[in-house]
């Protein structure tokens, strides 16, 4: 089953055309690594998928449900408010910056949205949150405030917080870009474990080792377009696109 179908996605900011006709298919259990130079539209694509940004043209279908479509008049029409939010909530999002609530403990960060947004039973959510903290190796940090955590720990909390909403898809926007190499390893291990559990993931990353070893498909973006996509072994050992060849020569030195 397709978890994400995006067709002809266009996104502009004033005169700047950031996405220029992106097509994306994500099957259940796939791990898609999106690579490319800065400014190629990778992060904007993720933000459009979960409606943090609205598109100018195109179609987005999540889990078989229509989130956005372009009408015959060229206007983009989104699903009605509550429906739109419910569909977008099928996707958990992990950002470059951890975006934790500084005035809340780790446990409070995890339970806030499931209780307040999804209106789930607080006691049940707390039990599930404790299990998730164990999953990311942070059981002992439940009552700690974010400022007392390392960057790697904060990012693992952010992953657990996204999982607490029970998404069927996880979106990662360069989750290790602000971490030093040692802390990067902590976060990538957690992401590898999610991949082994067949969580559907779309990962914008500059970690080529992760893209090569964990992804089931790699997408190379440049200038707001998908320039090449395929299996990691093909992308990294036999790239056909000249932009991709030049990019890999730069990042794999």
Automatic annotation (TrEMBL):
CDD domains named among the record's database cross-references: ABC_HisP_GlnQ
Pfam families from the UniProt entry: ABC_tran
Topology class, membrane: Peripheral membrane protein
Superkingdom to which the source organism belongs: Bacteria
Signal peptide extent: none
Gene3D superfamilies: P-loop containing nucleotide triphosphate hydrolases
Single GO cellular component term: plasma membrane
MF annotations from Gene Ontology: ABC-type amino acid transporter activity; ATP binding; ATP hydrolysis activity
Localization per Swiss-Prot or TrEMBL: Cell membrane
Keywords linked to the UniProt accession: ATP-binding, Cell membrane, Membrane, Nucleotide-binding, Transport
Main location: membrane
Transmembrane segments: none
Protein name: ATP-binding cassette domain-containing protein
Lineage: Bacteria, Bacillati, Bacillota, Negativicutes, Acidaminococcales
């Amino acid at each position: 089953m397709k978890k994400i179908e995006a067709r002809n996605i266009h996104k502009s900011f004033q005169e700047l055309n950031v996405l220029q006709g992106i097509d994306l298919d994500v099957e259940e259990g796939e791990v898609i690594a999106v690579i490319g130079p800065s400014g190629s539209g990778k992060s904007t694509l993720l933000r459009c998928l979960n409606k943090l940004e609205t598109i100018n043209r195109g179609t987005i279908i999540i889990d078989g449900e229509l989130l956005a479509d372009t009408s015959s008049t060229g206007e983009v029409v989104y699903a009605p408010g509550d429906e739109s939010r419910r569909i977008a909530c099928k996707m958990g999002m992990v950002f470059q910056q951890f975006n934790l609530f500084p005035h809340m403990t780790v446990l409070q960060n995890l339970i806030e949205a499931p209780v307040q947004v999804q209106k789930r039973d607080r006691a049940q959510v707390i039990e599930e949150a404790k299990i998730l903290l164990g999953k990311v190796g942070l059981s002992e940090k439940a009552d700690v405030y974010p400022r007392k955590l390392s960057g790697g720990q904060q990012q693992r909390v952010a992953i657990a917080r996204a999982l607490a909403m029970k998404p069927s898809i996880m979106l990662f926007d360069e989750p290790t870009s602000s971490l030093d190499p040692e802390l990067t390893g902590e976060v990538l291990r957690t992401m590898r474990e999610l991949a082994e559990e067949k969580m559907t993931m779309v990962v914008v990353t500059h970690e080529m080792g992760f893209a090569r070893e964990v992804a089931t498909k790699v997408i190379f973006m440049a200038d707001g377009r998908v320039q090449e996509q395929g299996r990691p072994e093909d992308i990294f050992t036999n790239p056909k696109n000249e932009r991709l060849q030049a990019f890999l020569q730069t990042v794999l030195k």
